[in-house]
């Protein structure tokens, strides 16, 4: 996940990360904290208490106007006009051939106002793809990525830590909902979304306001176990939660259906959308491969790019997309694309880990679900 | 960064400690820190051979996997079985309880080809 040496963009929290002893790495064109105290400690803190993440690298694209919803419905696989004001959904933008360009969160702030959040590494591409797709609609697009910061507080204690610092009624804010208000005294969009498998909130803020909000949250939360958490823990947390990552599970070679995200593609929506014909053909032909969870049954850790085999066969039939030692489960887990015929839970496969083949069992996703 | 004076080092961040013609091998504090939380180590069986410059095993942190390279050639006398259950010893005590192998060197003078503490310190940019 480390980029080359070209100039990296810095978030407004870079000084905080340095003071906290973070290891900073290039990610999606930004200099970001990989870890502070250590990935495992940060991971456990998010599962047991709460973690504070700097996600200022993520993109923020506003789409406004009386035709904004319709325009987004034509640009994306989901149907944003169906969103109630104040709600959000997970979405994707695909190429005309159905390949995934990026996964996104779409928030509806008003009848005619939507916020689209792409991955950092794809933000420019998504903006460039969306502009012509929206051209025929009463919609204006503004890429606000450069002047919007984003932090996330995630974990079972996130709500009690944040609640005294915001005028948004967090108890009434549903999962995948968003509200405009204040956080630590400054204007914020507060969303109950995240990428960890825990309850939590994401705060969209003006960059200049972020350091003070970060400090207030840390001061308020540290006594109950809030810690700063980096991209390393974000990755192990999302993997346990079975959440796909662009560049690993998602990319131009996979359709949403193959990624197990059939539910996102609203074939029944009114009007055409980019990729519809290709995705309909792919749906009718059936998936070429299926994303599955693997529980590694031998010694070793399956990593991105490692081959997957049917037991006793020479040629690989699939590929690991993400893998790690799950800090919560204390066992190696992975996601992989495998043939549909080998995708049923209980199927025994093998992963090539260096010179050896390690047994792996197909298991249902997610690996981890938070206690109800 | 801790770089003990009495050890020899490879450019791949392994260390070698000599006691008569027997050496102990591990990875440096710098390498352990770079890897982050170490969760798995794959080591050869006692009795097998170590060939200088060749891969003798692998080490995995939460984030990444990395090969281990033999600093010298020789017969492996012992491996640190404790690392199977407690690989984090490599993070907490890389030059002590985090040791990996004991080896009888084919040629004890081979250690002269390895870096001393000053050279290794310069390599990692440590003061």
In short:
By secondary structure, chain A is of the alpha+beta class.
How would you describe the overall organization of this protein?
The complex is a heterodimer of chains A (372) and B (127). Among the domains of chain A are: 9-56 and 148-240, Gyrase A, domain 2 (2-Layer Sandwich); 57-144 and 255-285, Aminomethyltransferase beta-barrel domains (Alpha-Beta Plaits, 2-Layer Sandwich). In chain A, 20% of the residues lie in helices and 31% in strands. Chain A has helices spanning 14-19, 39-48, 68-75, 123-134, 158-162, 210-221, 231-240, 276-285; strands spanning 9-10, 23-27, 30-35, 50-54, 61-64, 88-94, 100-110, 113-117, 140-143, 149-154, 178-183, 186-191, 200-205, 226-228, 290-296, 307-309, 318-326, 331-338, 348-353, 356-363. Chain B is of the alpha+beta class and 127 residues long. Chain B has a single domain, classed as OB fold (Dihydrolipoamide Acetyltransferase, E2P), CATH 2.40.50. A 6-stranded antiparallel β-sheet of chain B has the order 1-2-3-9-8-5. In chain B, strand 2 and strand 3 form a beta hairpin. The longest helix of chain B has 8 residues, at 117-124. The termini of chain B are close together. The model of chain B has no long low-confidence stretch (mean pLDDT 95). Classes of the chains: A alpha+beta (372), B alpha+beta (127). Chains A and B meet through helix 2 and helix 7 of A and strand 4 and strand 6 of B.
Main beta sheet of chain B: 6 strands, antiparallel
Strand order of the largest sheet of chain B: 1-2-3-9-8-5
| Gross geometry of chain B | globular
What share of the residues of chain A does DSSP label as strand, in percent?
25-35%
Q: What is the helix tally of chain A?
A: 8
Radius of gyration of chain A: 21 Å
CATH architecture of the domain at 9-56 and 148-240 in chain A: 2-Layer Sandwich
What is the first-to-last residue Cα distance of chain A?
33 Å
CATH topology of the domain at 9-56 and 148-240 in chain A: Gyrase A, domain 2
* Overall mean confidence score, pLDDT of chain B: 95
Please give the CATH class of the domain at 9-56 and 148-240 in chain A.
Alpha Beta
Return the structural class of chain B: alpha+beta
Helix share, percent of chain B: 10-25%
């Amino acid at each position: 996940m480390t980029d080359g040496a070209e100039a990296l963009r810095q978030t407004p929290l870079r000084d905080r990360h340095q003071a906290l002893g973070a290891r900073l790495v290039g990610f999606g064109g930004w200099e970001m904290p990989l870890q502070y105290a250590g990935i495992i400690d940060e991971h456990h803190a998010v599962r047991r208490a709460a973690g504070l993440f700097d996600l200022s690298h993520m993109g923020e694209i506003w789409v406004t106007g009386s035709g904004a919803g319709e325009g987004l419905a034509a640009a994306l696989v989901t149907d944003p006009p169906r969103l109630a004001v104040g709600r959000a959904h997970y979405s994707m933008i695909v190429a005309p051939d159905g390949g995934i360009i990026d996964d996104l969160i779409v928030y509806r702030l008003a009848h005619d106002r939507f916020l689209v959040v792409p991955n950092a590494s794809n933000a420019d591409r998504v903006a460039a793809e969306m502009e012509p797709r929206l051209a025929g609609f009463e919609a204006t697009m503004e890429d606000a990525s450069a002047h919007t910061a984003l932090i996330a507080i995630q974990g079972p204690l996130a709500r009690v830590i944040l609640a005294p610092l915001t005028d948004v009624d967090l108890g009434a804010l549903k999962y995948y909902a968003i509200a405009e208000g204040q956080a630590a005294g400054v204007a914020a969009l507060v969303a109950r979304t995240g990428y960890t498998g825990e309850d939590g909130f994401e705060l969209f803020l003006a960059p200049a306001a972020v350091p003070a909000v970060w400090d207030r949250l840390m001061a308020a939360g540290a006594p109950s176990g809030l810690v700063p958490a980096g991209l390393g823990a974000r990755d192990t947390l999302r993997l346990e939660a079975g959440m796909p990552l662009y560049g690993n599970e998602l990319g131009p070679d996979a359709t949403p259906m193959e990624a197990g995200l059939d539910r996102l593609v609203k074939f029944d929506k009114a009007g055409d959308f980019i990729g519809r014909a290709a995705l309909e053909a792919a749906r009718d032909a059936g998936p070429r491969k299926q994303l599955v969870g693997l529980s590694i049954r031998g010694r070793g850790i399956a990593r991105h790019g490692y081959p997957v085999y049917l037991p006793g066969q020479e040629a690989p039939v699939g590929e690991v997309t993400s893998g790690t030692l799950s800090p919560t489960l204390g066992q190696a887990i992975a996601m992989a694309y495998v043939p549909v015929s080998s995708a049923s839970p209980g199927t025994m496969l093998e992963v090539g880990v260096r010179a050896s083949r390690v047994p792996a069992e197909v298991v249902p996703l997610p690996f981890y679900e938070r206690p109800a | 960064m801790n770089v003990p004076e009495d050890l020899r080092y490879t450019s791949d961040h392994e260390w070698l400690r000599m006691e008569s013609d027997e050496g102990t091998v591990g990875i440096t504090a710098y390498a352990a820190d770079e890897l982050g939380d170490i969760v798995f180590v794959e080591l050869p069986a006692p009795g097998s051979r170590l060939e200088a410059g060749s891969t003798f095993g692998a080490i995995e942190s939460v984030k990444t996997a990395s090969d281990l390279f033999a600093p010298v050639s020789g017969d492996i006398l012992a491996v640190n079985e404790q690392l199977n259950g407690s690989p984090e010893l490599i993070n907490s005590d890389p030059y002590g309880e985090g040791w990996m192998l004991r080896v009888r060197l084919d040629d004890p003078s081979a250690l002269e080809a390895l870096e001393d503490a000053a050279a290794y310190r310069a390599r990692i940019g440590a003061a």
